[in-house]
Amino acid sequence: MCLVTGDKEDLIPERTGAPKSESINSDGSSRNETSPLHKAKKVLKSGKDVGGFMLVHDHKNQKSKVFDFRETAPGASTQKMFTDRDEALVGGLAVAVPGEVKGMEEAHKQYGKLAWNTVVKPAADLARNGFMITKAWLGQKVKRPDLAKTLDIIAAEGAKAFYDGTLTDSIINAIQSANPKGILTRKDLKDYKVVVRDVVKTTYNGHTVISAPVPASGPVVLSILNILEGYKFSPKDVNKTSTYHKILEAFKFAYAQQQQLGDPADPAYKASVTEKMLKQISSIQENVHYQTCLQQYCTIQSIHVHSESL
Q1: DSSP symbol at 310
Q2: Under a CB-based contact definition with an 8 Å cutoff, are residues 105 and 116 in contact?
Q3: Helix (H, G, I), strand (E, B) or coil at 77
Q4: Which residues are CB-neighbours of 229 under 8 A, at least 6 positions away?
Q5: Average pLDDT over the chain, rounded to whole?
Q6: Domains and CATH numbers, the chain
Q7: pLDDT class for 133, splitting at 50, 70, 90?
Q8: Inter-residue contact 104 to 98 (CB < 8 Å)
Q9: Strand 131-132 to 63-68 pairing
Q10: How many angstroms from the chain centroid is the CA of residue 180?
Q11: pLDDT tens digit sequence for 61-113
């Protein structure tokens, strides 16, 4: 999620279905305008995501920061806690420490102008009053009264209700009574902290591009852009096989480098990996041998390639 904050109401365009009277036309920044929409989206998505990253750019002072509210592993986690893949996807063991509620509140504290309950209320109302789902589900209207009650409590009491308050015991009880039983504890929730990080940045064709640092994949995206910029594509390169090949190779090499990244909370983490990803570009470009790679692929696929078509 990338947001721009400031006083200009035209920074973020109107969204279809946005609660207009409480977002775009409210006397708040675009940070406030987006919070109700994001929470409403969570209602529609059934709230499966439990963490994330928010990049905020202040256009007044041209400064940016990233709120890292990625979910974290419970304190009792071990490398061998899952006996099969399904346990990592379904059941109590699959539940990490959620960061989204506290992350949204932290961003609101630093940039918000509207009251917190005003920000959360549209999502609670959407869950309570219901919304239409697609024709694949017969166009039914879905209501989520339990989620509405939860959001009402968060609106009234803040993130504390989730992490160390009214809602905490019911969250822990549900996780620890699941099958398989979860290991998330009340202490895990209480100890969760949002991390504010510096952005990573590069330039692309004269434009500054900023993104979220690790543990997000911002360095990967910026590395791809750096590699592609070196090819100096022009309109004549559009729809050429060699152009698509170079784009695919840029993705391949950048994601190969991703395997060297890690978690900044890990003592073994090396920040220098990100620096190398954003600088060692020419050597990567030299490794993209279009003719050789294409011939190898075509040999495997038993396809004959005419050199004049390259």
Answers
A1: -
A2: yes
A3: coil
A4: 204, 205
A5: 81
A6: 2-195 (no CATH), 200-309 (1.10.246.130)
A7: confident
A8: no
A9: unpaired
A10: 28
A11: 999 999 999 999 999 999 999 989 999 999 999 999 999 999 999 999 999 99
Tokens 């950048």, residue?
254
Contact 85, 180 (CB under 8 A): no
Classified as helix, coil or strand, 209 is strand
Task: For residues 301 and 187, give the distance between their C-alpha atoms in angstroms, rounded to a whole number.
Answer: 56
The structure tokens listed for 138 are 């017969």
For residue 148, give both structure tokens.
């509405």
Instruction: Find where tokens 């391949």 sit.
Output: 252
Give the Cα separation of 47 and 241 in Å (integer): 41
β-strand partners of 55: 2, 66
d(CA 234, CA 37): 38
Task: Tell me the residue type at 280.
Answer: Q
Tokens of 198: 């510096």
pLDDT in tens, 179-189: 999 999 999 99
Q: Report residue 214: phi and psi, to 5°.
A: -60, 145
- For the segment 278-298, what is each residue's pLDDT rounded down to a tens digit? 775 655 666 665 555 544 444
- pLDDT given at position 302: 46
Q: With beta carbons less than 8 A apart as the criterion, state whether 55 and 222 touch.
A: no
pLDDT at 150 over 70: yes
- pLDDT per residue as tens digits for the range 155-193: 999 999 999 999 999 999 999 999 999 999 999 999 999
| Residue 105, CA atoms < 13 Å, CB-side half-sphere | 18
Q: CA 101, CA 160: separation in Å to the nearest integer?
A: 9
Whether 193 contacts 178, CB under 8 Å? no
The separation between CA 109 and the C-alpha centre of its own chain, rounded to angstroms, equals 20
